[in-house]
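STRUCTURE REQUEST FORM
Protein name: Potassium transporter
Source organism: Mycobacterium gordonae
Requested output: structure tokens
Priority: standard
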Amino acid sequence: MPATTAIHFFLELAVILGACRLVGLLARRVGQPQVVGEMIAGVLLGPSLLGRIAPGIQHHLFPPGQSNTVLYTMAQIGLVLYMFLIGLNFDANLIKHRAGTAVAVSAAGIFAPLALGSLLAMPLLARGIYFDKSVTLVMAMMFLGASIATTAFPMLARIIFEQRLSGTPLGTLALACGAADDALSWCLLAVVLAIHRGNPALAATAIIGGILYSVLLVTIGRKALTVLGTIPERRKTITAPVLSTVLILLMACAWFTDTIGIYAIFGAFILGVAMPSGFFAQELTTRLEPLVTTFLLPLFFVYSGLNTQIGLLNSPALWAVTLGILVVSIAGKGVACTVAARLNKVPLRESIALGSLMNARGLIELILLNIGLQAGIITPTLFTILVLVAIVTTLMATPIFEFVYGRHRVDEPSVPPEHATTPTEG
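Status: completed
Returned output:
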């Protein structure tokens, strides 16, 4: 019954929000972003911990079926709103100043993971327990490469703000590289999904449609959307009609990009980039961010946690595979980006700091993995392994950054606060 589902969902929400807040606070105590704690809380509430120590309670709280469908839908709404906020506060002009280095580091962050992922995919596919039986070698190579290549772009934006790097050479370079690598990773995923569905036209639709959507929105769309910024600027507030118009556009863009095969969060991010900056962006972020980051986004981490079953890694061989994928992931992303930056004459400390930031996978990899699991490309075993890789590489980012760069840095001039990246959890 719908009423019974709703009543139960309220209980789920209370438990999820309480657990994420508690573990998030503990994470902040040890110098980690709130989002790291929320990632861990999601795993703890799933079958990996709560399902082991209190299976009855875990099954009662998160039963399969319609309750999970509601949780999934709410989580997707949270992701769309969150990625819209990231786009809203992304200053594309910052990329122009270090374009050459950004291209080199981004290329290293894509091609090295693809090469190493391809090598890993061959033995993993042969084992038969990591990918669905319908997955070909090329698909396995591309999916694993895309998984290793992702960067936690939202978390990257948060660290850059907290470390007062907005508008600095390092902050600019990190944002540019993170955005480029994630865009390419989503293109790879679109190709894998199209091949998996047996329709190459889907890949062409996704990539060409995504390019046209992006170009039109940041050119013609940006000019058309300026009217949304003039009204709040004049009235010094965002009115209800303006806010509802923004939300209608956001849901329409999310629907469109999801329909053509590149997923709702891509459409949300590009719409955010095309929106007017300045007062409008600041005011809209102030309105939406608290609800999104404290209420909706934690739902996604718990939904991912429900699909993460650490108990599946029940042999030394599986843990060895996990360790191997972790090492390859660090080498393919963190080390490769560090070397590329150094070869482009970025100072050593900055190069290592950049590599540590690029190596964090966080929320973005969880999104990609959930898509792969839902589409039947990867098995729960590989899903669990890659979730652990995402958590560990995200945990590594802040301590390494602080050790090699943060405590040694001399404050650099940055852009004025009104042009800086707004703080966002993730």
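Reviewer notes: The chain has one domain: 80-406. Confidence is low (pLDDT under 50) at residues 412-426.
Form closed.
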